Amino acid sequence: MRLAMVNLFCECYSWKMIRVLFLLLTGVIGIAFGQKAGQSSGNYSSDTKILATGQQLFENYCSSCHNFSQRSIGPGLHQATTESPKVWLKKFIRNAPAMISSGDARATRLFGEYKQMMPPFPSLADDQVDAILAYIHKNQKVVTAQQASADIAIKDPIPAKIPQTGGQLFLQYHSTAPATGSTAPLARINKMQVLTGDQERLFVVDLQGVLYEITDKTWHIALDIRPLRTHFTTSPGLGTGLGSFAFHPDFSENGLLYTSHAEKVHSVRGDLGFADSIKVGLQWVLTEWKIDNSSKLPFTGKSREVLRIDLLTIAHGVQEITFNPLVRKSHDDYGLLYIGIGDGGSAEKKGFYPLCSNNKVPSGSVLRIDPLGRTSRNQQYGIPSTNPFAFEKDPTVLKEIYCRGFRNPNRIIWTPDGKMLIDDIGQSNIEEVNLGIVGADYGWPEREGTFRVDPRGDINKVFAVSTTESDKKYTNPILQYDHDEGRAISGGFVYDGQTIPALKGKYVFSDITNGRVFMTENRDLLVGKLAPIQELDLWVDNERTTFQKLNGTAKPDSRLGIGPGGELYFFTKADGKLYKVIGFQPK
To answer: Are 426 and 342 in contact (CB under 8 A)?
Structure first.
């Protein structure tokens, strides 16, 4: 959940509003407080102009997280306005924390369930709320997902809790990214990478469209794509924007930098997508930048479009592009670019789940291409001969696919001993890390972690895998946790630096929604087993704390990166702060 965290009306007006509205409608779905289902709790306009305004707002800013059939990233809205009083909804928008503090039963219940206090939003105009609610009210209906399975859903997939036995992780504040937002997240910093060479250089990307180089704790603009790409967009969607970047391993010689960014749909059809009859929700573009002089900032040079990808909605796009940093020039994986593509929300949009498991579309897969080749359909990149479908005779099968079966693969890394790890943000139950294997299928939307999902019914439920089902069809994760612990995994790294010997060989990761920090041993990340997880105590500048405490009511949106010398860093989108890990004390 780009974010599995349930947020209502994603990207609607502002991030602050998202947090308030999140609790607004999570509180009204499936919870009737003394009101009969189907009974309207307020007067909602039926004026065509108001409904049109509400529909436009909903489609532009809300549809990535919600629909009128079932729960998506946020709750299904098919009974929202019929199950809660309108006066309560509007009051809750104005000041959710005050209602929680006052002991309001509905608000308190929500806070207890989601462990997040949403900030107030007093500036939201009545007519804006009314228009959206009027459109939602128009779409109220009784919907029962047709569950193909007669099995009983598992309410608590992993009953055992993660023990807080990992030890103490010590962080030191490093610097703060320039603010690109007026409310949290103040800086949507999304990925860190070191450019190797005679001297290591540290770069961080902001989804708002800016790539920075950090020197002496100062953030310098290396590339700002906002004025360079007319259709570039950073909203709606929690992961929309400048998603990722990667330097070619021969950057010192060829000056090639690659980026992935989101664009509003316009007249250009994607190179990879689906049938023309299916409406495209958002496009992701892979660009190659030929840098003239990398020592001079900001970068200047030429660019070319390598690949354009069509996705069904604004959700779960291209959050990762990367090269294998471990292989040498003689290896057949050298210089090949991996592209992590989410399902584009197709599993959540009724009737479109087959797009997630179709080898003829890119949704839900990791692609691998040779950006310097020219054997692709659009003749802008090459197809590696070692890809699983490289010699497929069916011309409609995507030869770019390396592996598939993902919902939202937002980080791909390699461990020091050469294992490829792909983390996948789950739907409503499981967060997972997978061992990347060529040709493997990790199961989404038929699997979430080691559990079965019925995509023809309610995808928010999981079931035990039948003993009669083949174990060979899908590849199980090597690490997983359920949504009692967190709602969106933030993929991490195996520490291989020199300054903290006790941390060496440990895979450290986090959860985006609550900022908790976990670890496991790299030696336990093996196919056929699930690695045990331990939680770490967090110390920042000699004070025991949590990322949630540091960010108050805002979602921490914690991420990890590897800096110069292989040292580990954390950064949080909510406040744009960067921290360096300086110590570890095991228990």
So the answer is: no
Are residues 365 and 403 in contact, defined by beta-carbon separation less than 8 angstroms?
A: yes
Angle at 66 between CA 60 and CA 72, to 5 degrees: 135
Give the residue from 240, 242, 212 showing the smallest Cα distance to 225: 242
Q: pTM for this one? A: 0.84
Q: Among 370, 401, 400, 380, which residue's Cα sits nearest to residue 249?
A: 370
User: Quick count: other Cβ atoms within 10 Å of Cβ 406?
Assistant: 28
Structure tokens at 184: 């949290």
Check the CA dihedral 378-381-385-390 and report its sign.
negative
Does the bond joining 85 to the residue before it have cis omega, within 30 degrees of 0?
no
90-127 pLDDT, tens digit per residue, is 778 777 888 787 888 877 777 766 656 666 666 668 78
Residues 83 and 32: beta-carbon distance below 8 Å: yes
**Residue for token pair 């509180």:** 27
Q: How far is CA 16 from the centre of its chain?
A: 19
pLDDT category of residue 73 using cuts at 50, 70 and 90: low
Task: Give the domains, in start order, of the chain with CATH numbers.
Answer: 15-138 (1.10.760.10), 189-404 (2.120.10.30)
> What Rg do the C-alpha atoms of the chain give, in angstroms?
23
Residue 457 near residue 449 (C-beta atoms within 8 A): no
**What is the total residue count of the chain?**
587
C-alpha to C-alpha distances, 564 to 178, 498, 547, nearest whole angstrom: 21, 11, 23
CA-wise closest residue to 66 among 313, 310, 265: 313
